[in-house]
């Protein structure tokens, strides 16, 4: 059961897909080359690949590598939580909103062996002001396989200043001059 702070308030609205959101089936790509969740330049990262779904939803895959073990041969729970966090965070691109995780609640339903493809699906359920409510499920053995992990989350919309104030200047400057225009706009574009 989710905690009270993950229940949308009575005045929450259904999420609205941004008109310029990627079409259903289109890959979302990475928002930052060195992101541990999705960046191609992070050798031990998850290299999570997400695709837009209908409405404000998406699907994603992540293959558990030996570098992601906790118990021998099994994915570390924190890594699985990261996969859920990254998947849920990617939803905000469909809203064209920059947001960070405020709260993430995870259920670990079944162990996930190394070599397994985790099939994730996620959707935004409601928006209330700066608060974005979402949930995700990860299945093994195929997109229709048994549920191994699931999560509910609250993301909070932030201005780009959140990153320039708290992040390291060198990395921020490098991300702002990323030659990949889609990645640059995904990281920094804010829509009212
Ligand atoms: C360089 C590249 C840029 C990349 C850009 C893309 C980034 C994507 C990254 C993707 C990577 C994957 C994703 C990641 O890993 S993101 C990384 C992990 N997350 C963070 O680092 C966030 C750290 N936290 C903060 O910075 C602040 O606490 C934030 C910004 C979240 C809120 O502080 P702020 O001062 O702004 O706002 P507020 O305190 O007035 O709160 C506002 C409202 O929210 C409610 N609330 C707040 N927290 C919680 C909570 N825990 N449970 C329940 N409710 C909570 C609060 O009650 C209030 O509600 P209401 O009173 O209005 O009803």
UniProtKB/TrEMBL annotation:
Enzyme class: hydrolase
InterPro entries the UniProt entry points to: HotDog_dom_sf, THEM4/THEM5_acyl-CoA_thioest, Thioestr_dom
Stretches the record annotates as Disordered: 1-28
Domain of life where this protein originates: Bacteria
Record GO biological process: fatty acid metabolic process
Topology versus the membrane: Peripheral membrane protein
E.C. number(s) listed in UniProt: 3.1.2.2
Domain Thioesterase residues, every copy: 73-139
Alphabetical UniProt keywords: Apoptosis, Cell membrane, Cell projection, Cytoplasm, Fatty acid metabolism, Hydrolase, Lipid metabolism, Membrane, Transit peptide
Cell compartments where the protein resides: Cell projection, Ruffle membrane; Cytoplasm; Membrane
Pfam families (alphabetical): 4HBT
Main location: membrane
CC terms in the record's Gene Ontology section: cytoplasm; membrane
Catalysed transformations (reactions): hexadecanoyl-CoA + H2O = hexadecanoate + CoA + H(+); octanoyl-CoA + H2O = octanoate + CoA + H(+); (9Z)-octadecenoyl-CoA + H2O = (9Z)-octadecenoate + CoA + H(+); tetradecanoyl-CoA + H2O = tetradecanoate + CoA + H(+)
Protein's UniProt keywords contain Metal-binding: no
An example molecular function term from Gene Ontology annotations: hydrolase activity
SUPFAM superfamilies to which the protein is assigned, alphabetical: Thioesterase/thiol ester dehydrase-isomerase (SSF54637)
Family statement drawn from the similarity comment of this UniProt entry: Belongs to the THEM4/THEM5 thioesterase family.
Name the UniProt record assigns to this protein: Acyl-coenzyme A thioesterase THEM4
Organism: Streptomyces bauhiniae
High-level lineage: Bacteria, Bacillati, Actinomycetota, Actinomycetes, Kitasatosporales
């Amino acid at each position: 059961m989710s905690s009270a702070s993950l229940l949308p308030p009575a005045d929450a609205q259904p999420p609205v897909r941004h008109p310029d959101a990627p079409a259903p089936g289109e890959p979302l790509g990475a928002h930052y080359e060195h992101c541990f969740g999705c960046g191609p330049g992070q050798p031990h990262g998850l290299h999570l690949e997400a695709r837009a779904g209908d409405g404000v939803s998406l699907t994603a895959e992540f293959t558990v590598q030996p570098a992601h073990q906790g118990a021998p041969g099994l994915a570390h729970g924190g890594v699985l939580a990261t996969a859920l966090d990254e998947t849920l965070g990617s939803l905000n691109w469909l809203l064209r909103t920059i947001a960070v995780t405020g709260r993430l609640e995870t259920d670990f339903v079944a162990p996930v062996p190394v070599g397994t493809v985790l099939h994730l699906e996620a959707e935004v359920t409601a928006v209330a002001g700066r608060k974005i409510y979402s949930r995700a499920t990860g299945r093994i053995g195929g997109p229709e396989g048994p549920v191994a992990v699931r999560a509910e989350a609250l993301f909070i919309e932030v201005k780009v200043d959140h990153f320039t104030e708290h992040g390291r200047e060198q990395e921020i400057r490098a991300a702002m001059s990323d030659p990949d225009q889609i990645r640059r706009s995904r990281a920094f574009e804010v829509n009212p």
